[in-house]
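Marked as duplicate of an earlier ticket. Keeping the data here for the record.
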Amino acid sequence: MHNKDSITSIAIGGFDGMHTAHQALFSNLSTNGAILVIDAGYANLTPNRDREDYTSYPIFYFKLEKIKSLSGKDFIDLLKKEFPSLRKIVVGFDFHFGINRSCSIKELRNLFSGEVIILNEVSVNDIKIHTRYIREYIKNGDIKTANILLGKSYKIKGYQIKGQGLGSKEFVPTINLEISDYLLPNEGVYFTQTIINKKTYKSVSFLGHRVSTDGKYAVETHVLNEKIKLPNSQIEIKFCQKYRDNAKFDSFEELKKQINLDIQEAIDYFSL
């Protein structure tokens, strides 16, 4: 556990996604810096403690429910108490705090006697980087744009569950996953990387209702050209690009033909 007494600078925010703009904000932290997440309970890009995958700084968490009734002064007093060596606060241009978000940058500078650094809005390819925009790109299946704004491949985590049993018998073997807490891209087939036991494999993944078979929603991934022993542990999927939308096929033969085509397209994609 990191010692709060030694922390001299903190970045404050929700930081769901730990995206490019967040990383620019963290770059203003000192060596003894830390990240303070105000946890509102709705993070679904980097839920729970997933934010810790994307930084070397220690992360501390304040539950929004526990601090939202504090005045601006009381919030700053709490920061001073929790981080007694605090000399610098780093926030985004739209940062608000205090009851009903009543305080902004002006009040922060008045209430905190140390250094205050404000990060201006960050854009990539003329697209403003905000978590809410990234969520929309992911929901629409525009993984390429989402990944540019994130500064990394969007990643979900889950545990293996029993599938239909058709893959290994009728088609190709897939790993079926149960996913919770994460925002899922829209239905379709994606070129992906699947991480098992910390090893990364090239893969093709399907998300959606199995409209050609049992109609149930599924998240399943096929590792390309590898036979693997599955662990009793978490499996991760990184999304590279959407290949096609979900589609209904009139026969197993048509479905099998399309799956083989999906696999070949994925192999070609990763060979480029």
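See parent ticket for discussion. The chain has a mean pLDDT of 92.
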